[in-house]
Amino acid sequence: MYKTWLFNNKKKKERKDMIKYGRKWTPRMVIYQQNQEEVLKRIEDESGAKPGASGMFKHYQMAVKRVMVELDEDELEKTKETAEEWSNNFRPPEVQAQVAWKKGLAYMEHFLKEIWRQCGMRVFVLSAWKNEQGEVLFGMHDDNEALGDSDSFMKMKDWEAIEPVWQEYAQEQFGARAWDGGRHVKGGWKRI
Questions:
Q1: 145 phi and psi, to 5 degrees?
Q2: Percentage of residues in the chain with pLDDT exceeding 90?
Q3: In terms of C-beta density within 10 A (0-12 exposed, 13-18 middle, 19 or more buried), how is residue 184 classed?
Q4: Taking 80 as the threshold, does the pLDDT of residue 24 lie above it?
Q5: For a Cys-Cys bond, which of 26, 55, 173, 191 suits 49, CB 3.0-4.6 Å?
Q6: Which one, of 137, 178, 186, 120, lies nearest residue 159 by Cα?
Q7: In what order do the strands lie in the sheet with 124-130?
């Protein structure tokens, strides 16, 4: 009886998003981002662990710490300022490109599900970004079919009429050259 009452009257937990759209950067994270190749080389030289191998991760903290120790006070202060800047404002384009590649699709899917769940809105997303090589990529994402009793916009309408206009816009915004004409794969990216 007490157990049931306590269960029914416990404090309700607030629902938390599965995705964090921002990141609080620390000096350690900035140092790793800016000196990634050096850190990975140290790990390989000192432990023999190859980058990406499971054994590499146990040496990661120590390698970053050694790089941090070698910094003088001015460099460490600049790193702290960079961490603050990246936390509060925009990251550099190469970091944005990495995040877009790793998490862009997950961010869009989460947004589409939440906008449907909260507002009952149907959304078709066009996206464009520059990768680390400076190539402009673009994508189209349509999750309407999976979100409820509805059909996919891409299956029902002539979305291909939108594609050249979006490519032209992306080229203008990112200063890209002509697109390569590759085929678009649903949920994927293609170079412009």
A1: -65, -40
A2: 4
A3: middle
A4: yes
A5: 55
A6: 186
A7: 124-130, 136-142, 190-191
The mean pLDDT of 3-18, rounded to a whole number, is 70
Query: Which residues lie closer than 8 Å to 130 by C-beta, 6 or more apart?
Result: 93, 97, 136, 137, 174, 176
The Cα diameter of the chain in Å comes to 72
Q: What is the spatial distance between Cα 162 and Cα 151, in angstroms, rounded to a whole number?
A: 18
Question: What are 67-121's pLDDT values in tens digits?
Answer: 888 888 899 899 999 999 988 888 888 888 888 888 888 888 888 888 888 888 8
**Which of 32, 80, 82 minimizes the C-alpha distance to 57?**
32
Phi, psi for residue 181 in degrees, rounded to 5? 75, 15
Residue 15's φ and ψ, nearest 5 degrees, are -70, 130
Nearest to 125 by CA among 139, 106, 146, 135: 139
Q: What are phi and psi of 132, to 5 degrees?
A: -65, -20
